[in-house]
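Repro:
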Amino acid sequence: MKKYLFIACLFALCACNKGRTYFPKDLEPETVEFVRFDKALLNVHEATVAQDVKVLYDEYPEFMPLWVEDILGIPSADTLYLEQQLPLFLNDTMYGFKQTNAKEQEVFADVKDLEQALGKAFARIGYLYPETELPTFYLFVSGFQTPIYFNDELIGVGADMYLGSHYEYYNRVVYEYQKQTMRKECIPVDVVSAYLFRTIPYTSTKSRLLDQMMYRGKVMYLTAQIFDELPGYEIMGWTKEQWNWCVKNEEAIWHLVMDKRDLFKTESLVLTSYLNDGPFTSEVSQDAPGRLGIWLGWRIAESYMAHNEAVSLQELMAEPDAQKILEESYYKP
């Protein structure tokens, strides 16, 4: 995996937090090592499938039943049916699973950079939230279904969802705009942001766009602090050009949102337009990238923290009052 580039922010309003530092420089990284379930799965052969399945259950008693049920959709106890279906899954040619398994082994031959990035990130999460217990990390193949898989004890990364934006078989299973984040180097941010969304609850009693976008924007702000060496567009999963368009048009975007009073709307179509992934944010412009509302929430959170230096990251994340954050952010692009 290519190493992260340390890129200076070129804009006055950038992904960094205007000088505030939240983590000690000498913070010791956690030790993260991926369990290579992806490799183990390739030891299954049609001639010895019954024996090979038993080995997988014996060696991966926590993950194997979850993978069988949630990825293959087979009851984990139904080993006879599993023995029939597993070779078909591994050797499928219609969606290129056989080729994909080979490509995945090539792309993920070395995962040290991933482990180091996640070790640093989870050390920072643990610094903020000392009760955090480091999960077990697995690499697996998902049949183009699942990039990140969670339960309370483990995090699984569907490595076949991160083979590079130009991987040929993605054309059969995803839209063009989704390919931007289907790169190996996107995994640390995807894992951490998904982990934060899972562990930091939405506590507002309201369901306005403002409340939703501030919750998600706060999580992205925290993610950006954890990965403070990364440019903002990598945190958002955008291209550099999409980020630059938003920065250039930030004032016009905000005026449009305010003029339409979208912040106070609760209609699902409005929330979906601003918050969900898509080729663009229809409520604003076909030139505006998807999830623009999350970006706006991030910018407001950034402004709030710049104007309230006594507020900690933990206090920001625990604050349920989106209206208060907006008012005390003095956000005026």
